Structure formats: C-alpha cells, structure tokens
Amino acid sequence: MKKYGFILWLTGLSGAGKTTLTQGLECELRKRGCLIEILDGDVVRTNLSHGLGYSQEDRNTNIRRIGFVANLLSRNGIGVIVAAISPYREVRDELRETTNNFIEVYVNAPLAVCEMRDVKGLYAKARSGEIKGLTGIDDPYEEPINPDIVCYSSQETIVESITKVTTFLEQENYI
Amino acid sequence: MKKYGFILWLTGLSGAGKTTLTQGLECELRKRGCLIEILDGDVVRTNLSHGLGYSQEDRNTNIRRIGFVANLLSRNGIGVIVAAISPYREVRDELRETTNNFIEVYVNAPLAVCEMRDVKGLYAKARSGEIKGLTGIDDPYEEPINPDIVCYSSQETIVESITKVTTFLEQENYI
Predict the structure, then answer these.
(1) What band does B174 get if pLDDT is binned at 50, 70 and 90?
(2) Using CA atoms, how far apart are residues B2 and A33, in angstroms rounded to an integer?
(3) Using the beta-carbon criterion (under 8 Å), do B76 and A73 form an inter-chain contact?
(4) Catalytic one among B86, B128, B153, B154?
(5) The CATH number of A6-171 is which of 3.40.50.300, 3.40.50.2300, 3.40.50.1100, 3.90.1520.10?
(6) Distance CA B81, CA B59 (A)
(7) What ipTM did this prediction achieve?
(8) Confidence band (pLDDT; 50, 70, 90) for A2?
(9) CB contact under 8 A, B73 and A77
C-alpha cells in the first residue's frame, strides 16, 4: 500500500552536496507528480529560529523545529526534503521516532572534498579563525550509523544519487 | 475555479471561543473531505517559540512563525486552522499579504464574557496581579478593522458560527 507523505532528511557536512541533491530530487519528484516542499536549514533558521546560535543545544532546538514542521507536512501527504547539517545523532534518531515516514539520507563526502569546494567560504573562515564552531572543523559531526540511504557525492554523479533515492522511495512504496 | 489551500486565522481574546470553533470546524471540514491541520497558538509556542515571552516583539515573532508554517501547509493544498490571540493588527495584515489564501476570522466576544468563562483561569490571575501582560487586561488587543468573517460567540450558537465559516469557504471556492 502506498505510504502517505515522507521526510527525506539529508544530513551531512557543509559542502557535502545536500542543496544540490535537494534541487535535483525536487525536480525529479515533481516531474513524477509528487507534492514536494523543501525545508532548507538556513532558511528555516531565519524564519523559525532567529536568535538561536550554534551550540549543541541551539542546533538541536533548530533541528527539532524543522522536524516539527516537516512532520506537519508529511502527515498531510506532502513529500518533504530537508537539507540540514543536523550533526547530532541523538536528535536525528529522535525525529525518526516522532515524525511521519522519516528517511535518513547521509550525504557523505570527505571533509577534504567539502573544504576544497567551500561553497560558502566557511571552511576558509574557520581555518583562519574568523568563525568558530564549524561542523567538521571545531564542532562535531556524528555520522549516521544506520542511514536508510547513503549518497557518496564525491564518487557518484548527481543522477546516480537521485536514482538511489527514488529507487528507495519506489521500493518502500512512498512513490 | 477551486482555490488551493487556505488559512482560517482565528483571532480574538483568550476565552472568546477560538478553540471551540476550531474543533467544530475541524470536524465539519474533515467530514466534507478536506485535509485539515490545526495550529494552536499555545502548541506552536511550545514547539517553535520556546524562550519567547509576551512582549509585543515576541508575540509578533511567534505569530510570524505560525504564519510561516501555515503558509507551507496552505500552499500545498491543506486547509489550516490557526487559533491564536494574535493581538496586533499590523502582523495580521502582513500575513494576509505574505501567505497563501489568508482568511481573517474575528472570534468576537465581549471581554466581560471571556472573563466570566475564564477557561484557563488567566483573567483571575491577571486581576489578582499574579500574572502580567494578559491581552485585554493590561496588554492591548487590536480588533480587526475589516475581517473576512466575524463570529459572535456569545450571541450565536457554535453551529451558526461554523456555518458562517463554511458558507464563506463555499462562496469563495475554497471548498
């Protein structure tokens, strides 16, 4: 039986390719007639979490808020794609239990690759000491132990990554 | 042509009957086959706005967050019912402009009636000085100037109020 709504939760380092994969998935899933909503970590932070910082507690509060909103959408039949570093395993595991059809997608790229890409210039700033608490540099990233899907963005093409996700969604009767 | 999603934004004093009307509308609209999601001001405050207080700025931030979430749902075809005092006109008017199919429902009951009901015991606490900043007592409530619907909860039955809202939704092609 077809499942009702889902949350593709893309976790990974800054620069791992979460946004690129999000955009590709959005396009592909819309083409297939799915209702899709994107929750980007940075955008949600602006709208729901202004005033929160980057401590473990504040990061987790932000992630729980994204989860709350994602769940409202998912339980109404919407396919939600979340792109958020979400560095702490405990909160991701909590969301798996508390939200509707949570699917953990680990966007896995080596730190060296993310740092070379440095799309937002954050790694350079962290290395020069201009910013503190960047995940992967001086703040932890706890890898998923048992993610539903792993996309190796430095070793596979974007089409291969998208196909991995859509194949999973098909096999599990989400689409 | 049928409109896609809507936000029934119930504004009014504490005790005016927003929650009662919300429950009645939820039941009636679900019976008609609508996808309905409830955003209760207090519940959203717990999940999205923990740490915010009751200053004008904090109240408005909370209302904008509810509006952000309501808009995500509404633009995906969901009927959203928001029950929140939302005392400031400016932010309600802002949401009318920035969200998908915003419908202002003024749940209008005289302060004396709300205070007599005192469902949550807040008015007694405000009168005794135990709490400060209760809307209608020592914090402002700015009435809607041109609401889409007014329900006079102390003069009409709940069925009459529900019918007012559903008639509006029918006439405007929301349902």
Answers:
(1) very high
(2) 19
(3) yes
(4) B86
(5) 3.40.50.300
(6) 19
(7) 0.87
(8) confident
(9) no
B6-109+143-171: CATH number: 3.40.50.300
Chain A nearest C-alpha distance from B129 (Å): 30
Give which of B26, B69, B99 to mutate to test A binding, by max A Cβ within 10 Å.
B69
Is A47's CB within 8 Å of B35's CB? no
Q: Which two tokens stand for residue B134?
A: 């209760």
Structural domain boundaries in chain B: 6-109+143-171
Output the DSSP codes for A111-174: HHHHHHH-TTSHHHHHHTTSS---BTTTB-----SS-SEEEETTTS-HHHHHHHHHHHHHHTT-
- CA distances, A97 to each of A17, A71, A90, B15 (Å): 26, 11, 11, 35
What is the tens place of the pLDDT at every residue in B95-131? 999 999 999 999 999 999 999 999 899 999 999 999 9
Indicate the length of chain B as a whole number.
175
pLDDT band (50, 70, 90) for residue B73: very high
Report the DSSP pairing between strands B36-40 and B79-83: parallel
Per-residue confidence band for B141, with pLDDT thresholds at 50, 70 and 90? very high
Question: Is B47–A68 a contact, with Cβ atoms under 8 angstroms apart?
Answer: yes
Rg (CA), chain B: 16
Contact B104, B92 (CB under 8 A): yes
pLDDT over 90 at A1, yes or no: no
The 3-state DSSP class for residue A77 equals: coil
How far A65 CA sits from the closest chain B CA (Å)? 6
pTM to 2 decimals? 0.91
Is the per-residue pLDDT at A80 higher than 80?
Answer: yes
Q: Are B142 and B87 in contact (CB under 8 A)?
A: yes
With beta carbons under 8 A apart, name residues in chain B contacting A68: 47-48
